[in-house]
Amino acid sequence: MGEGYLGDGRSRHKSQEPLSPIWVRFAVHVGNGRGRALLVGDSRMITIFGIPGPLLFGQLLLGLINGAFYAMLSLGLAIIFGMLNIINFAHGALFMMGAFAAWMLLEYAGIGYFPALILAPLVIGIFGIVLEKLLISRMYKLDHLYGLLLTFGLSLVIEGLFRNYYGSSGLPYRIPEVLQGATNLGFMYMPNYRGFVVAAALVVCFSTWAILEKTSLGATLRAATENAPLVQAFGVDVPRVITLTFGGGVALAAFAGVLAAPIYSVNPNMGDNFINTVFAVVVIGGMGSILGAILTGFGLGVIEGLTKVFWPQASATVVFLVMVIVLLTMPHGLFGKRA
Fold this sequence. Notes:
By secondary structure, this protein is mostly helical.
């Protein structure tokens, strides 16, 4: 039999071996505009609703990856809004700073990926603490709009500084050697690093939820934001708790940035690709709901990925369509508390 070409309509990939009636060597190039993954796998001649299996599973994987970033970023936003009542529009810029911190650690100090996965969130978290002390803390007693305008201005300043110094073309960050390659799942080959990203996001997100919802530390944090005078009467340093909470939310954004660095080019605009969708995730999940941010982030990532297969024209707007439907039927969000 002759050689065959299989693809997704946007590019064609020559098969590495002749096609057979039972086994086909699929080469599917899938992407979402922000990053692409070459998924190659041996699969039986199966289609799901007329879609080749590897294409569908490839988009599901990309949906999970995007959902992982949506979940981590919306988790940080939910913590900051739910506990501090601040709409942090600079979250995308802080996500970008996490990626740049990892790149700088490697470029200037020779510090590899795994140490950077710890050091970069710490550094950016400390930067967030400084921001909170100098600027954000002045917004707590004012209307939400003032905090939004301040953080929006901060995001423009931060992105502008990085753009002026590093340009906007993007800087490469190599996947660590131990996570290179792919694993055969039987129906597709899954890139090891992308699997690591999904697993790391799940661990971090649900660990954070467990700490905030199931421990005495989380109870103290929630009480400090709901009734600060009473908690302070018990000897708790409420201003310090609030500052550390903001720093923790920023560190989560930076952690997501480090995970994103090897997948997307490290550039000053990388946060802009996520922030609008992340705000929609927070609204759909329920403003301030930690569990809602996590589940909605992963869920909308998968929905977005499937939409790229079955209805590509709507893939850029499906998240906002879901937001409109949820707000019309459940104004408090899927997991939010009724006012």
